[in-house]
Amino acid sequence: TVRSEYRRIALRAFEGVSSLNYLAGSATSPAELFGIIYAPTGPRGDEYLELFDELVEEGFLESYTVRRFPEIVRHSLRPEYVNWSGGGGYVFDWDSLTPRPPEPGVYDPSHKPLADRLDLLLLKELEFDAAKSFPEISAQLYSRHGVKVSDRLLLYHYEKHLVPRRMFSKYRVLFSQAEKLGVYLVAQTAPGAYEEYLDWVRRVPYLNKELLDPSGQHFSEYYLPSSEFQGFLGYVNSRLAPLAIRMKMLVSLPNSRSVFTLPFELFDEERGEWVHDAHADASKVLAKAHELMNLA
After folding, report:
1. Are 174 and 206 in contact (CB under 8 A)?
2. Under a CB-based contact definition with an 8 Å cutoff, are residues 248 and 186 in contact?
3. 119: exposed, middle or buried (C-beta count within 10 Å: 0-12, 13-18, 19+)?
4. Beta strands of the chain (E only): which ranges?
5. DSSP secondary structure code for residue 229 in this structure
6. CA-CA distance, 90 to 206, in Å (whole number)?
7. Are 51 and 64 in contact (CB under 8 A)?
8. Phi, psi at residue 143, to the nearest 5°?
9. In the chain, count of helices (H) and strands (E)?
10. What is the C-alpha to C-alpha distance for residues 119 and 100, in angstroms, rounded to an integer?
11. pTM of the model
């Protein structure tokens, strides 16, 4: 929850958190931001999350809540519900959704893959647009980062590093999310109801991503046309809510959210791991907030 004097510029200022994967403003509560960050596990993670304590102490945030999920699952579109002859989009009956078929097998990402900065820069560009050619990626690396590298060397890193070292899990086909509502459910499932809850969640064609915790805590992310929101609410109330002890729904509007790619700048090649600095991130947020406030 952002303090009132910073609410107008909070979304842009908070992009200073370098480990961000996703950030959005709440459509139902203007004082709230919510997002996903990639943080270390164990004591290093606890230390990194102190950046939020610093933002509270410095008066940028009123309060914050952190929930941890050890597993992430990303989903592709459901082709059986796509209206291929009518210009795309989904056509289905909320009461007749079937279980989601298992997706084709993918690489099992390595726990700690070997990587260098060029590998991570290449991954970053593929996250922006996986349909680009290697010459196009070479041009983008120079324009964005000042890195001169040939397309042949990029192909070598892709074939000899990214693929055999399992540095990505799969490619997904998705509908554009640009004009969609973002809807997010955070739930604590009832004892013994976790698997049934997952089954009903995964039937929804608009499902994009899940964060999982064996304790029964669950996060799911959907992007749907505004015309489908009432149908989605009915589905949540009839199928999901009865299986949950607690549930919170968050909604983001188009143009009120940002997705961020791999923070390659945080990777220490010598140590082979990501380096997180809570104070540096908090300082970047505060500096950007003060800059934006002075420009207003």
Report:
1. no
2. yes
3. buried
4. 20-25, 33-37, 71-74, 181-189, 207-212, 217-224, 244-252, 257-259, 267-268, 273-274
5. H
6. 9
7. no
8. -70, -35
9. 9, 10
10. 33
11. 0.80
Distance, in Å, from the CA atom of 244 to the CA atom of 193, rounded to the nearest integer, reads 8
> Are 11 and 285 within 8 A, CB to CB?
no
From first to last of its 296 residues, what are the pLDDT tens digits of the chain?
999 999 999 999 998 898 888 899 999 888 899 999 988 888 888 999 999 999 999 999 999 999 999 988 888 889 899 988 877 789 999 999 999 987 655 444 445 556 677 888 888 788 777 788 999 999 988 887 788 889 999 998 888 888 877 777 666 666 677 789 999 999 999 999 999 999 999 999 999 999 999 899 999 999 999 999 999 999 999 999 999 999 999 999 988 888 887 677 777 777 777 788 999 999 999 999 999 999 86
Provide the pairing of β-strand 20-25 with 71-74: unpaired
Residue 71 pairs in a beta bridge with 212
Contact 181, 226 (CB under 8 A): yes
Supply the Cα-derived Rg of the chain in whole angstroms.
21
SS3 38: coil
Residue 172 tokens read as 């997904």
Q: In whole angstroms, what is the distance from residue 125 CA to residue 143 CA?
A: 12
Two tokens, residue 67: 């929930």
